[in-house]
What we know:
- The chain is α/β, with parallel strands linked by helices.
- The protein has a single domain, classed as 3-Layer(aba) Sandwich (Rossmann fold), CATH 3.40.50.970.
- The protein has nine helices and eight strands.
- The chain has helices spanning 28-42, 77-87, 99-105, 107-116, 161-167, 181-193, 216-219, 231-240, 269-278, and strands at residues 49-53, 68-71, 92-98, 121-126, 172-177, 198-203, 221-225, 245-251.
- It has an eight-stranded mixed beta sheet with strand order 2-1-3-4-6-5-8-7, with helices on both faces.
- Strand 7 (221-225), helix 8 and strand 8 (245-251) form a beta-alpha-beta unit.
- Helix 5 (161-167) packs antiparallel against helix 8.
- The model has no long low-confidence stretch (mean pLDDT 91).
Amino acid sequence: MMLQKPPVAKPADYKSALKPVWCPGCGDFGVVAALTRAFHHMKLAKEDIAIISGIGCSGRLPAYLDVYGLHGLHGRALPVAQGLKIARPELTVIAAGGDGDMYSIGTNHFIHACRRNVDITVIIMDNRIYGMTKGQPSPTTEPDVPTAMQPDGTGLPPLNGMLLALAASASFVARGFTGDPNGLAGMIEEAIRHPGFAVLEVLSPCATFRPEQSEWKRQVERDVLTPAATLAEAMQQVMQAPELSTGIVWRQQRPAEPAMEQAPARDGLIAEIHAGFRA
């Protein structure tokens, strides 16, 4: 008797039974919608997907999806995601974090993950504020934005995450917008299919601490960024394009860090290590 293939999961099937506790109007709802649409279009089995996150509003993402997930430590999603992919290369591994998680406490991990080029996708939900911890300025907050901690603004230039990713040798760099879940789903699919480290920065408005970002749905210029022929051209595009622009700016085919090879068994190795410590 021929076995029937299980039906392809619908977008809603990838959601868990937990209801998000994000504020009404939070852009992160759009990330969930885009991810589930991308998974459906790619016909991915739920057991073949793993979402790894850090801390912050975006860190809750794994709980709202019915796939494997880990809600880890602040800024540490990338080393966990890379280790998982190297050990289990058959999995689709996605790291998720916010602008604080990836561009502040996790910056060193981000830079070196770009260099290593492990075949994972990182989704950075950029709302230019620390939302879960009550509105402190983040690395991407504009210099003149008042906050409770710094009423006159930081006076500091915001970090350009896409430029950092390009300089650190990420092999895929793009920016999307949660107000365009279909377009974002397409970008996520391209990022997942890219054979290497894919950086997808997502403009994700914070309705509570940055209510003015509700205007982004009228201000975002879609598909302005286009794949560049050289790294220098990609960097120039990012620096010269409108601040709220989306698109894929860089694709590079270069070897990804290989999966972990099965090491040959060594009898007594643990005993040798213990003996070395005792010596």
